[in-house]
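Sample A.
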Amino acid sequence: MKKAIPEFKSEAEEFEFWSSKGEGTDSTKFVDWSQAKRARFPNLKPTLRTISVRLPVAMIEDLKILANKRDVPYQSLLKVFLAERLTEERRREIGIITSPAKGHSFIERRPGCDYAIRRPGAERASGVERTQAKAIERAREIEPKAALLVERVRDTNAGGRDKWRKP
């Protein structure tokens, strides 16, 4: 018989329970995964945190001009720019560690919550899929012999995404 999942007083308490330090690290004690069914939550929004950043006025004005040209709110454009830069930095970090050249493909989560298949140094994605599993499958179709590196989508205890992993 499976253990009952406890009632949590806060999201932090639940996180601690299911994290690598808590009792819930082995979820099979609490959930019969053979009875699990796939679910989709199309309206689920990622957890957001409001921050305050001091930027030079000229930078904000430039951002507003670019946003106006693209007909998007400037704060949304700023989030896109940050997401792109973070992806670029993660790629660069992996490049230093594994020297990906020919024969590598990356599966990256995009801000729209879909997954891009990229080759090292490519400006554009080779393909885009709605799920990570489909992206891995598609990447293997595109480049069967490529070594795949998949961006982790879970946050670590340190609060950020873990680097890359092999599927």
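Sample B.
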Amino acid sequence: MIFHYFEITPKIVRPIIPIILKSQTKLMLYSALIDSGADYSIFSLDIADALGIKLQSKDKVKFIGVGREAIYGFWGKIRITIGDTTYKTHAIFAEISDFGHGILGHKGFFDQFDVKLIYQKQIIEIEPYISFHKPDRN
């Protein structure tokens, strides 16, 4: 799959791609930043609410963001579709609605795909990591 970098301003481009987030009963078109520095995939609490994903206090997690401030979120199960590949994963849902997009990190994205960022051409190549990938049958 090939995607193009997203232009934030004429001088700033980022590897933000379109994705589909799915719960048991709902789906949502969304965009997410490919972030090789993020340990986990993270989505807004608003997304969990819109998709009807029930987050539980026993799944609360604390992590440190770029600003070194503690951020609290909740682990939740979600299905993600990128191109023609759908997979189930765990992601963190936290208060990141100011970003306007999700974050695709090591767990929940890089563990599913081989990714090549080609900045000079402004393209992103993404291929499913077939060896351990089990197609979603739902």
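B remarks: The longest helix spans residues 45-51. The helical segments are 45-51.
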